[in-house]
Amino acid sequence: MSVYTRVEADDLCTLLADYAVGELEDFTGISAGITNTNYFVGTSLGRWVLTLFEQVDETELPFFMQLMDHLAGHGVPCAHPVARNDGGFLSRVRGRPAALVYRLNGASVESPGPEHCRSLGGVVAEMHRAVASFTPVQRNARSLDWIASAAERLDGVMAADEHALLADEIAFQQRATDTLYADLPTAVVHADLFRDNVLFDQARVSGLIDFYYACRDYLLFDLAIICNDWAFDDAEHYCPAQWQAFMNAYVRRRTPDEAERAAWPAMLRAAALRFWASRLIDAHFPMSGEVVHIKDPAPFKRLLLAHRADAPALMPQ
Amino acid sequence: MSVYTRVEADDLCTLLADYAVGELEDFTGISAGITNTNYFVGTSLGRWVLTLFEQVDETELPFFMQLMDHLAGHGVPCAHPVARNDGGFLSRVRGRPAALVYRLNGASVESPGPEHCRSLGGVVAEMHRAVASFTPVQRNARSLDWIASAAERLDGVMAADEHALLADEIAFQQRATDTLYADLPTAVVHADLFRDNVLFDQARVSGLIDFYYACRDYLLFDLAIICNDWAFDDAEHYCPAQWQAFMNAYVRRRTPDEAERAAWPAMLRAAALRFWASRLIDAHFPMSGEVVHIKDPAPFKRLLLAHRADAPALMPQ
User: Fold this and answer.
1) A44, A85, A132: residue with CB nearest B132
2) What is the pTM of this model?
């Protein structure tokens, strides 16, 4: 159960007075999501999601709101916030910063097939085109520097051989940053496009959600995160049909350049490293008082080892 | 048939290269609308309407685009344009200015019942709240000055007694402008919210369309245009249940003030006059070479006479 903050009808009526979305008809808590409180809210004018931000750095919220608004304005299907009558996107509910967001149809798919990956490839390519004109900046909160300091915290609390692997991989990525990655195209990327952050209506993407790790990074980093989650099954076996379907659709709207093809095997490792490190921190240093799902770090270690041995190609033949 | 400009698949593929909405899947012309060419366009990312502006003053288009974008951003359901990858809303297709717009579900309703009017009342109230923060300005192209010059053109080409009525009503409205209307709240209003410009999904408004007469004017003028079309049947008989349902919903989000209640009977006449005059011009001075539906001016003359005799109240008891 992830509804942290209990919201009452009175809170919602007060909130809705600041918007032009009509009157409250119904609302219900959503038991999904890890770091935010989410409610479905129905009004006389439509269906919305109310998100109360429980852990996000409040100063970063305007960036995320602007990004979702920008993408939706360009036709990229995604959750995006409703403007208040005073023009802002952020409200306050029960002391938390909050946003009212357009509710998307559809649901996430646990075991996506090639047809899901094909639709996603087209959407991600358009997202990577649409962010070219998005100018606000945002650091990557889970950058290589963050991973390096995480490794320091983990020294002594995890098995020595695992920590050695972590340190070795960080060193490899630090070298790659100045060499393989030097000329890669960057833009604001989603950086967390796992299966649970993509909604489908039939086999067509109805929307991307949860942009709260979005940051300026390599477009290729976004692709590597996607490949690691969408083209590998739960036993970390590579599913070439999935990735082929994704890339076939992707390249119809955006063609990766030579530098991106060359950096791909290293970037797959970078994406595995990023989530291995953050899950290690979550597992070894759980934040007190929180009811969160601790996710197993091990799959990302296995993925990293697999990529070190033999990474799949960016463009399947 | 109102598809004026024939658009081919090649035109659409060229157009879509400038957007982030995916690849062309299908398209079909829409035989509705009077002054624009409209096509349904399906792409891999969604469903859109392409509008080619055949008669709209091109310099005014950015205002309309910004207005639709503003309203949609505030949650008011309406047709609104997709941003191009360069950030603009306007493209060019076959030499015409063109916009790609989100396609709404639903259809217009020829004989709306109270339940339709109730939903519309809520949406119009929210639109009238949301425009408070919309700052661009736009003159009313069918202002009282325009009507007065129309009357000059019509002198001698229409029956003398009808022209006398027209002149008398213009004089009445000119006096009302400085007196009854002096303190009325103004904002950007739709100014053309007839039944064919509102789409419904079941009995709920799914969207407002055709904002190409939107301008700064009295909020009450918008209400009077709506009352004249939605609360009068085709024999110009007043349907109090319709108007009561509309206003019951409207006042839950915006309460008309004393000045608006006092000006209401005169404003109903102003709204009837505006469409009587423009339809007289269309009927007596049809533009050459155009395939348009000439609409009968007579109903608006009858409505005007009815209001002069006995106008219904703004707020039904």
Assistant:
1) A85
2) 0.89
